[in-house]
């Protein structure tokens, strides 16, 4: 795999609460330099990133209901609409984990059935974060079986803010259960090119990471 092709799988991510405007500018600059798929920025920086990336192929991604997932459906909807209005191409939304742990499938259906059509009406991409690192294998199976019935664009493993992020086992399990049209984004704790290579081999087609530049430096040396 060429280093340009490695870059095309990466969402160059900066979601730290202390990220500064100048850090977002640098993130955008690096994304253009390396040819990353997208930048993933806090909602308050969507319009800044959109402007910075004007005319480039790098997409603008942001987060919804992040990082804990328990915002109400109405709040998530408002966040999604605002982000799309300000120029986000892709929305990474945390599912309601509390509803999952409560066994409230009806709530989870209501949530996805409310948000997904609005995102798709705006011709945008929804990546649904299941926080696989804190789920049991049965809960991961449940999520894949549930969301496999909807035209969700991606299931994403992790926020990067829970005690555990992505694992190869989780990605392999998700790939084995999801229909082909649903892609997988692996994220959380991915720091090295070798990990990226393994996650892509396991079936992920997008990698979310804050270590994109370091990963590219390794990739350039190795490929
Ligand atoms: O969505 C991506 C994560 O927030 C990135 O997590 P990371 O800092 O562990 O790479």
Short description:
The protein has 223 residues and is an alpha/beta fold.
Structure description:
There is one protein chain. The chain is α/β, with parallel strands linked by helices and 223 residues long. The protein has one domain: Alpha-Beta Barrel (TIM Barrel). Helices cover 47% and strands 16% of the residues. It is built from ten helices and eight strands. It has an eight-stranded parallel β-barrel, surrounded by six helices. Helix 4 (73-85) runs parallel beside helix 6 and helix 7 (137-147) runs parallel beside helix 8. It starts with a helix and ends with a helix. The relative contact order is 0.15. The mean pLDDT is 97. Residues 13, 15, 40, 159-160, 165, 187-190, 208-211 line the site of glyceraldehyde-3-phosphate (G3H). Glyceraldehyde-3-phosphate binds at residues 13, 15, 40, 159-160, 165, 187-190, 208-211.
In DSSP terms, counting alpha (H) and pi (I) runs of 4 or more, how many helices?
10
Tell me the structural class: alpha/beta
Q: What small-molecule ligands were found? A: glyceraldehyde-3-phosphate
**Radius of gyration (Å):** 16 Å
Distance between the termini: 7 Å
Subcellular location: Cytoplasm
Function: Catalyzes a reversible aldol reaction between acetaldehyde and D-glyceraldehyde 3-phosphate to generate 2-deoxy-D-ribose 5-phosphate.
EC number: 4.1.2.4
Keywords: Cytoplasm, Lyase, Schiff base
